[in-house]
Specification:
GO molecular function, one term: 3'-5' exonuclease activity
CATH architecture of the largest domain: 2-Layer Sandwich
Protein name: MUT7 Exonuclease
Structural class: alpha/beta
Helix content: 40-55%
Distance between the termini: 54 Å
InterPro entries: 3'-5'_exonuclease_dom (IPR002562), Exonuclease_MUT-7-like (IPR052408), Mut-7_DEDDy_dom (IPR037432), Mut7-C_RNAse_dom (IPR002782), RNaseH-like_sf (IPR012337), RNaseH_sf (IPR036397)
CATH superfamily of the largest domain: Ribonuclease H-like superfamily/Ribonuclease H
Low-confidence stretches: 301-316, 461-475, 550-582
Radius of gyration: 30 Å
GO biological process, one term: nucleobase-containing compound metabolic process
Keywords: Exonuclease, Hydrolase, Nuclease
Length: 691
């Protein structure tokens, strides 16, 4: 606002006999509040808020103030939200009779003005005296979840009550229509068990509440995980029996409801004997089992069928020859669980000019609350591989009163520019490392000498892998990620059947140890081969230009990030100004840029793919957290919008999650993304990924 206008407004206040009543008269005369921008009425009100603080003698009290408060309450229900705070301050509504305020909000509610009633309750902090279910239900029906989160945001008791209510609505057999029929209009596609489940997990994460508070939602999530595990084991056939069994036992546990569903799934995917054995394992009574399973359980013999086990083992062994084989002897793989055992490891790894392949394994979260924590840290050298039991080592260091002992060596490794650190999707790994040990939260800012093999020309990898995957096996799923790169450079892909192992369970199985060692060691062989003959892989002779990830200067990047992703109360970041956008990172090609698009941005994903960007797009039924899993596994940037941004950006490294304006068309969204990441699109990139 111009200085001249401010002076004119203040002169107007000074000329009024009763400035407070005069402001209300002016606002009451505005019959039609249009738009969400800042109107003249807003500037006058905001200036009054400042002016009245400078002239406290003009403040009203007693009966006169009560009259003004009654008038301003009528205006608050009609004016834009940006006028609420200044008007509440000017007319001291926090001092008004609480029962009177509650009665006014109740009147708004019964009139059907649910949003206005909730906003006013939040501003006046009336929530402790209200019924959380009554206030929040119509907002949820209208898909105003942002407002619901703000309503309970400062009150832990209300947060728990709301979550228990939502969980009760997700109970099997509950008819959601018993809720919806009490209200007029609502969005049925936005109000169902699956949507409510996503909301519950987001609130559990945001408010740091124990998921045990919501057993129905947790059970439903576990059931979806069981379906996923059955798909991986019996349809994709990318998970071995031991791995699958570990996860099933961990998920089902003593939960009778899940045990019954497991038996049902087993009868669909396996034989009756297998279902009966699991029923026997859980000691399930015969009267709750399907008749055929109960009959099989009756005649089940208790000896192990040795011939079946031998046959399965022979199949697993014959399958291994199609995959990358670790070229070092088993004796050179060291599993380290004590501080004393790690000392020779650090002495060798921290040797100047050393080249180290680094990988990490986390227990799969399967969409549950919480950030992934590193269960195993693998470091490969030319002749040996070290597997660090990170949880055990951190626990030991803490017990000995020297919690920073281990983190000191990890920080030293990453900050030493003379040591070449090889990885694949390193930002995601560093984010998981920071979540595991808070002392390492800034290790990504100190990291030097990092070579992220994810930046190899992935377009060429895609083309070649499509040719190779046909003659390697007839039923195997197409390779992706690091396995795809290893297939192209070394001739055979990685065996990923242990990828979704329970990496927290000890002792690790032999297959897990070999898998973990291979994941780290293959980085050394890929890097060596690329260095020897970069041209045959579409790389220039200067591998530094292709492989070494050059982060933009941290202070500037952080400033840009804060401006770009500064969240409004709704969770949607504000726009970036031209001046701020000028602080761009170093330019990259579309071949160096890979993203995963959230399911509300499918149009953007297709548009970026047409421009030559490597894109993965979530399906409509996918949980938003799936984007974070893909981003960490494959080193992709997450593109999302609205509230999911708040959850996803905390699960990946800084700057690896970007919020897109969902109201714009795909073309404008694509331009926004390309500009932010400084991606340079050439004519040859256009339609280069289309079939």
């Amino acid at each position: 606002v111009s200085r001249q206008l401010k002076e004119e407004i203040r002169r107007g206040f000074a000329g009024l006999e009763d400035p407070l009543a005069g402001l209300l008269a002016m606002l009451a005369g505005i019959s039609d509040w249009k738009g969400k921008g800042r109107s003249l009425g807003y500037y006058i009100t905001a200036e009054m808020d400042l002016w009245i603080k400078e002239h406290p003698a003009l403040q009203q009290s007693g009966i006169e103030l009560k009259k003004l408060q009654a008038r301003v309450l009528r205006i608050l229900t009609q004016c834009p939200a940006n006028l609420l705070d200044p008007l509440i301050n000017i007319y001291q509504l926090h001092t008004a009779d609480r029962n009177y305020l509650l009665e006014h909000v109740s009147h708004l509610y019964h009139r059907g003005d649910y949003k206005e009633a909730a906003l006013l309750s939040i501003k006046l902090k009336l929530q402790p005296d209200q019924d959380v279910e009554k206030m929040c239900t119509p907002l949820l029906l209208q898909d105003k979840t942002n407002l619901v989160e703000d309503y309970v945001g400062e009150y832990p008791d209300l947060q728990s009550k709301l979550l228990q209510i939502l969980d009760a609505w997700c109970e099997p057999g509950f008819d959601i229509k018993t809720i919806t029929r009490q209200y007029g209009s609502y969005k049925p596609n936005k109000f169902n068990c699956k949507t409510l489940s996503k909301l519950v997990f987001r609130l559990l994460d945001r408010f740091n509440i124990d998921p045990a508070l919501c057993p129905n939602v947790v059970n439903q999530r576990h059931l979806r995980t069981l379906h996923y595990l059955f798909y991986k084991r019996f349809v994709e056939k990318t998970m071995n029996q031991e791995n699958w069994t570990d996860h099933v036992q961990s998920i089902v546990g003593e939960n009778r409801w899940l045990q019954e569903h497991l038996i049902s799934l087993l009868t669909s995917y396996c034989d009756l004997n297998t279902a009966a054995r699991w029923a026997q394992h859980f000691c399930l009574p015969k009267d709750i089992l399907p008749h055929r399973v109960a009959d099989e359980l009756q005649k089940l013999q208790f000896q192990v069928r040795a011939e079946g086990t031998a046959k399965a083992g022979h199949y697993e062994k014959s399958k291994k020859k199609d995959y990358y084989q670790l070229p070092i002897p088993r004796a050179n793989i060291h599993f380290l669980q004590t501080w004393e055992e790690t000392l020779p490891c650090w002495e060798k790894v921290l040797w100047p000019r050393q080249v180290v392949g680094i990988d990490m394994e986390c227990r799969p979260s399967f969409g549950m609350v919480g950030k992934p924590r590193v269960s195993l840290l693998q470091m490969a050298l030319k002749d040996e591989v070290f597997l660090l039991d990170l949880p055990r080592l951190l626990e030991q260091a803490e017990a000995e009163g020297d919690a920073q002992k281990l983190s000191y060596f990890i920080q030293k490794l990453y900050s030493d520019a003379t040591i070449t650190k090889l990885g694949y999707g390193m930002p995601g790994d560093l984010s998981s490392l920071a979540a595991t040990c808070s002392v390492l939260k800034d290790v990504d800012k100190q990291a030097q000498g990092m070579v992220d093999l994810l930046t190899v020309d992935k377009q060429k990898v895609d083309v070649l892998s499509a040719e190779q995957s046909y003659h390697v096996g007839t039923t195997r799923q197409p390779e992706k990620g690091l396995s795809l790169l290893v297939q192209r450079v070394l001739g055979k892909p990685l065996d990923k059947t242990e990828q979704l192992s329970n990496w927290e369970k000890r002792p690790l199985r032999e297959e897990q140890i070999l898998y973990a060692a291979s994941d780290a060691y293959c980085l050394l062989e890929v890097y060596e081969k690329l260095c020897k003959d970069p041209a045959s892989f579409g790389l220039s002779s200067d591998l530094t230009e292709n492989l070494v990830r050059k982060p933009s200067p941290k202070p500037r990047a952080k400033k840009q990030l804060n401006k770009q992703e500064l969240s409004s109360p709704s969770g949607q970041p504000d726009r970036v100004t031209n001046k701020e956008a000028s602080c761009a990172p170093a330019p990259i090609s579309t071949k160096e840029f890979s993203v995963v698009c959230d399911n509300m941005l499918q149009g953007l994903g297709r548009y970026l793919r047409c421009l030559g960007v490597d894109v993965q797009i979530l399906e409509n039924e996918d949980d938003h957290r799936r984007a974070a899993e893909i981003a960490r596994q494959e080193g992709r940037v997450i593109l999302t919008s609205g509230l999911p941004y708040q959850t996803l950006q905390s699960q990946v490294a800084e700057g690896r999650c970007f919020s897109v304006n969902c109201s714009e068309k795909a073309k404008e969204q694509a331009l926004q993304v390309l500009k932010h990441f400084n991606v340079q699109v050439s004519r040859a990139d256009i339609f280069s990924r289309c079939q």
